[in-house]
Amino acid sequence: MKITDHLKNAKKTLFSFEILPPLKGQDIKSLFGSIEPLIEFKPPFIDVTYHREEYVFKKRENGLLERKTIRKRPGTVGICAAIMNRFKVDAVPHIICGGFSKEETENALIDLNFLGIDNVLALRGDNIKSEGSFVPEPDGHKYATDLIEQVKNMSQGMYLDDDLQTAVPANFCIGVAGYPEKHIEAPNLKTDLKYLKLKQDLGADYIVTQMFFDNKKYFDFVNKCREEGITIPIIPGLKPITTEKQITVLPSIFHIDIPEELSEAVEKCKNSDQVKQVGVEWSIQQSKELAKFGVPCLHYYSMGKSDSVKQIASALF
Ligand SMILES: Cc1cc2nc3c(=O)[nH]c(=O)nc-3n(C[C@H](O)[C@H](O)[C@H](O)COP(=O)(O)OP(=O)(O)OC[C@H]3O[C@@H](n4cnc5c(N)ncnc54)[C@H](O)[C@@H]3O)c2cc1C
Known about the structure:
Blueprint: H1 3-9, E1 14-19, H2 29-35, E2 45-48, E3 54-59, E4 65-70, H3 76-87, E5 90-96, H4 102-114, E6 119-123, H5 144-155, E7 173-178, H6 189-202, E8 206-211, H7 215-227, E9 234-238, H8 246-254, H9 260-267, H10 272-293, E10 297-301, H11 307-316
Parallel strand pairs: 1-2, 1-10, 2-5, 5-6, 6-7, 7-8, 8-9, 9-10
Antiparallel strand pairs: 3-4
Helix pairs in contact: 5-6, 9-10, 10-11
């Protein structure tokens, strides 16, 4: 079922979450173990992230360094199929521009369609860590907007090969990313919103936001989006703080602010359990206020650990 239909049919705020594929070499059991405790809160969908390849340098016998390409977290498509099969919940694979030619994207979308997956979150994807900026494949997409166009074309039966005159449409519901504190590369929020509006105009059906810890940022963002003519649902993404380190790491990775009150509460903690509890309580307060505001769904970045998200969901759903 499409996410937009889940949202339309909902009688109250929905609960959903995002998971990461396990590191290569690990089995899927621990992932199932982190999903199982959250199923009682009836998530209509679970997002599965996509992780592109990375470069590592390995020392050869002759002492020279050899550059190798490795993918640390493969398996997004298989995990989506396994989730749908085991939990009877819609899985939303993230699809990215990075590392994919248009042809590879088309083939991946065909696989998803054959698996009965109705939704994708269409993203540009992060740059490879050792590359300073995002580098598209020679025959790949540069921006999420280009990827949306390709997915939308397939929804109208338009594949890359013009000779395919009677191709069956692969009709996906398309989610996209939005940034209440603006995307790191955008010169300002106004410009970022111009491209977010373009994503809607090209066929995006809903937005999931980057994490934020101050609801005012989300409320302002929604207001500005509406002023720009962005009318599609905007699902807030929330991450409970689980370690003291995240107070400094999250802002540097995601270009977001941690409110003073939250960082001070974490600083006062005497052990890691107390930090987790502060994270849970902060997230519960955020969630309650957002639910009262009438958000369609509360979406949690579980990062593969269910205990904090379970505590939050128990207080809300
Ligand atoms: C909810 C969520 C889930 C995510 N999941 C993943 C994941 O699974 N895997 C992963 O690798 N990364 C993931 N990311 C991270 C994301 O890929 C990065 O933030 C990436 O840097 C930008 O992706 P985007 O889709 O927002 O890019 P875009 O929408 O392409 O935007 C990138 C930048 O270009 C600008 N821009 C957009 N369109 C155009 C255009 N047509 N012309 C000129 N400028 C333009 C934007 O303002 C922005 O500054 C996720 C992010 C979010 C918020």
